[in-house]
Design brief:
Blueprint (H helix, E strand, L loop, with lengths): L5 E2 L5 H10 L18 E7 L2 E6 L4 E5 L14 H5 L23 H11 L3 H6 L12 H5 L10 E7 L4 H13 L6 E9 L8 H6 L7 E6 L5 H11 L4 E5 L3 E3 L3 H11 L4 E9 L6 E2 L5 E5 L5 E5 L2 H12 L5 E12 L12 H16 L3 H8 L1 H6 L6 H9 L5 H8 L11 E7 L4 E4 L12 E2 L1 E3 L11 E3 L5 E3 L3 E4 L9 E2 L1 E4 L8 E4 L4 E4 L5 E4 L9 E4 L9 E5 L4
Helix pairs in contact: 11-12
Protein name: Polypeptide N-acetylgalactosaminyltransferase
Pfam family, one: Ricin_B_lectin
Family: Belongs to the glycosyltransferase 2 family. GalNAc-T subfamily.
Length: 559
C-alpha cells in the first residue's frame, strides 16, 4: 500500500489498520491550497483498472482501482530472469526526478521485465540509488523544524514481498540520505516470505553498508502487509514507528515534519503528502491537491472533487486535521503507483480482499454494515466465517465513537443513507421508470452524465439508489449529485448527475402532495424529456402538474 503513517501511541493502531485496510487503492495527495476551484480535466487515458488524466494545471492524476491480479506466476519469466539483479546505474539517469527514456533496442527486454514487478524495472535499474529529487515543499517548510534534535527517534519499518533490488534499496537510501541521522533509531526490513534469491544473503551483506542500523526480519509464511508491519513494530526500538512501502523515494525534510507532528501530539498519526513515481518512466510527479479521499458504498477508497464545503474544511485541516490522522504538508514521499498488482494471493484474491473489507464493515460500520453487505455479495458470503470479537472488544475498550458520529462530525458531506435522509428509488409516475446513476467515467474519477430513467431494478441494485438529504441534495454513490442549471437558458435545461459541489444548483425540494421534485434556485420541476425516447435524459421545465413531473420516492430499507 502506501507510504505509511507514524505513530507513537500504540493505542492508535486500530486507526492505522482501519485506514490501511480500506486504502487499497491510491493516488495521493493534497497540499497547497490553490485558490482556483475549477479543477476540471483536460485529458483522459484509461487502462483496465486505472484512470489517469492531466488536470488543467498540468498535473497528472492517477486513480488506481487495485483489483489485484491473481498472478501466481509471471508470464514467460524464467527462474533466472526473476532472480537476477540487473541493477546497472547510469549517472544522471532519472536525475532530479526526470523520466527515463528507454532506447528502442531495449524495448522488448523492458516489456519482459515489466511483468515481474508491474513497473518498469529496466528504468529503475538504470537510475542510481541516490538520484536527486525536486523539492516541492512550500518555502516556509524549509525554515521550519530547525529544532529537530529535540524530536523523538524513529524506527523505519519497510515490509517487502519479492520487491525489486533497485526500488527497495532506493527506498532505504532515500529515507536515510534525506533524514538527520540522529532521528533514525534503525531501519527494520520485514520480508513477507519473498521467493527471490537476491533478497536473502546478498541483501544481508548489502545492508552492512548503511550508515544507520538496518536489520531484516523474515516471516516464513506469507502473512500479508499488516501482520508483517506488526512484526516489525513489535521488534522496534524507536519511540516512533514509521511505516514505508518498499518502492518509495523520500524527499528532503520528509522525516522532520512527520516527527514534528508526533512530538506535538503523540496520539496523532502523521502521513506525508504522497507524490507519484511514474510506473513507466520513474518520473517523480507532484500529486494532486484539490481532491479529497473517502470510501464509497463498496468501501473502495476514491478521490473526489472538492466542493465548496471541503474547500473551507481543507483550510482548517492544515492546522489541525481533527487530531487523529494528519497530513504533514511539508513531508513529501514519492510512491510507485501500479496499474495492477504483482502480488500473489495465497487464499485467492476475492477471499483475501472481501474478508478484509467485511472485517472493516463488521468492526466499524455499526448500522451501515448491513448497508455494505446488501450491495456486496462477495463480502456477504464470507462474513459469517470471520471472527472479529477481539476487535470489537478493543473498539469498546478504547471507547471509539460510532460510525454515525463519524458521518455527522468528520464527514458531513458524505453520501451514505441516514435516519434523517431519504434512501431508495426515485420513480417517474408516467413512465414507471427509475432514475439511474451513470456508470461511465468520462472526464474524471467520478462517473457522470445526463440523468436518465431506466426500468426499475431490484432492492439489491445500488445503481438506482439515491439519498436525499435534509438540505435537498439528491446524492448517489461516489459523491454524485443531481444537478441542473441555475438560470433559464436556450433550449431545454438538461439535468445531469455529476460530482457533488455543495452549490445551490444541486438543491431540490420534494412536494409529497404534488409529487413534484422542484429545483430550488430555478423554481422549475424535474421532468422527463419532451421527446418520446425516455433514455434521452431529464430536464427541468415549468411546473405543470402533469404525470411526467410526478415522482415517487420509494424507501428501500438499508439497515
Ligand atoms: Mn505500494
Amino acid at each position: 500500500m502506501i507510504a505509511g503513517p507514524l505513530r507513537r501511541c500504540r493505542k492508535v493502531l486500530p486507526v492505522i489498520i482501519f485506514f490501511t485496510t480500506i486504502v487499497i487503492v491510491v493516488i495521493w495527495r493534497l497540499v497547497k491550497l490553490n485558490k482556483q476551484n475549477d479543477i476540471h480535466q483536460t485529458h483522459v487515458f484509461r487502462y483496465n483498472n486505472q484512470e489517469e488524466y492531466i488536470d488543467k494545471h498540468g498535473i497528472k492524476v492517477v486513480v488506481g482501482h487495485y483489483v489485484g491480479n491473481p498472478v501466481n506466476k509471471i508470464p514467460n519469466a524464467t527462474y533466472d530472469m526473476v532472480n537476477k539483479v540487473n541493477f546497472n546505474p547510469i549517472p544522471d539517469k532519472g536525475k532530479n526526478g526526470n523520466p527515463v527514456v528507454i532506447e528502442p533496442k531495449d524495448l522488448l527486454v523492458m516489456q519482459q521485465l515489466f511483468q515481474i514487478n508491474r513497473f518498469n524495472l529496466l528504468a529503475s535499474d538504470q537510475i542510481p540509488l541516490n538520484r536527486s529529487l525536486p523539492d516541492y515543499r512550500r518555502r516556509k517548510c524549509v525554515a521550519q523544524f530547525k529544532d529537530y534534535a529535540t524530536y523523538p527517534k524513529t524506527s523505519i519499518i519497510i515490509v517487502f514481498h519479492n520487491e525489486a533490488w533497485s526500488t527497495l534499496l532506493r527506498t532505504i537510501w532515500s529515507a536515510i540520505n534525506r533524514s538527520p541521522k540522529e532521528l533514525i533509531e534503525e531501519v527494520i526490513l520485514v520480508d513477507d516470505a519473498s521467493e527471490r534469491d537476491f533478497l536473502r544473503k546478498p541483501l544481508e551483506d548489502y545492508i552492512q553498508n548503511f550508515p544507520v542500523v538496518v536489520r531484516i526480519l523474515r516471516s516464513k509464511t506469507r502473512v500479508g502487509l499488516i501482520k508483517a508491519r506488526l512484526m516489525g513494530a513489535s521488534d522496534a526500538n524507536g519511540e516512533v514507528l514509521t511505516f514505508l512501502d518498499a518502492h518509495c523515494e523520500c524527499t528532503i525534510g520528509w522525516l522532520e515534519s512527520l516527527l514534528a507532528v508526533i512530538k506535538n501530539d503523540r496520539k496523532t498519526v502523521a502521513c506525508p503528502v504522497i507524490d507519484i513515481i511514474n510506473d513507466d518512466t520513474f518520473a517523480y510527479v507532484k500529486s494532486f491537491e484539490l481532491h479529497w479521499g473517502a470510501f464509497n458504498w463498496n468501501l473502495q477508497f476514491r478521490w473526489y472533487t472538492l466542493g465548496t464545503t471541503e474547500m473551507k474544511q481543507r483550510k482548517k485541516d492544515y492546522g489541525n486535521a481533527g487530531g487523529k490522522i494528519q497530513i504533514a504538508p511539508c513531508s513529501r514521499v514519492g510512491h510507485i503507483f501500479r496499474k495492477s498488482s504483482p502480488y500473489s494471493f495465497p487464499d485467492g484474491i476475492n477471499k483475501t480482499l472481501f474478508s478484509n473489507l467485511a472485517r472493516v464493515a463488521l468492526v466499524w460500520l455499526d448500522d451501515w454494515a448491513n448497508f455494505y453487505f446488501k450491495f456486496n455479495e462477495l463480502a456477504r458470503n464470507v462474513k459469517d466465517e470471520l471472527n472479529v470479537t477481539s476487535r470489537i472488544q478493543l473498539r469498546n475498550k478504547l471507547q471509539c465513537k460510532s460510525f454515525g458520529w463519524y458521518l455527522d462530525n468528520i464527514w458531513p458531506q458524505n453520501f451514505f443513507p441516514k435516519e434523517d435522509r431519504f434512501f431508495g428509488r426515485i420513480r417517474n409516475v408516467r413512465e414507471n421508470m427509475c432514475l439511474i446513476r451513470p456508470v461511465k467515467k468520462i472526464m474524471s474519477n467520478q462517473p457522470m452524465g445526463v440523468a436518465t430513467l431506466e426500468r426499475c431494478l431490484g432492492d439489491d441494485n445500488s445503481l438506482e439508489m439515491f439519498v436525499m438529504t435534509k438540505d435537498g441534495f439528491i446524492m448517489s454513490d461516489d459523491s454524485l449529485c443531481l444537478d441542473a442549471p441555475e438560470r433559464p437558458g436556450i433550449g431545454p435545461l438538461v439535468v445531469r448527475i455529476m460530482a457533488c459541489s455543495g452549490y445551490s444548483r444541486q438543491k431540490w425540494e420534494y412536494d409529497k402532495k404534488t409529487k413534484e421534485l422542484r429545483h430550488v434556485s430555478n423554481h422549475k420541476c424535474l421532468n422527463t424529456s419532451g421527446s418520446k425516447k425516455t433514455t434521452e435524459g431529464l430536464i427541468i421545465a415549468d411546473c405543470n402538474g402533469k404525470k411526467s413531473q410526478q415522482w415517487t420516492l420509494e424507501d428501500v430499507p438499508w439497515k
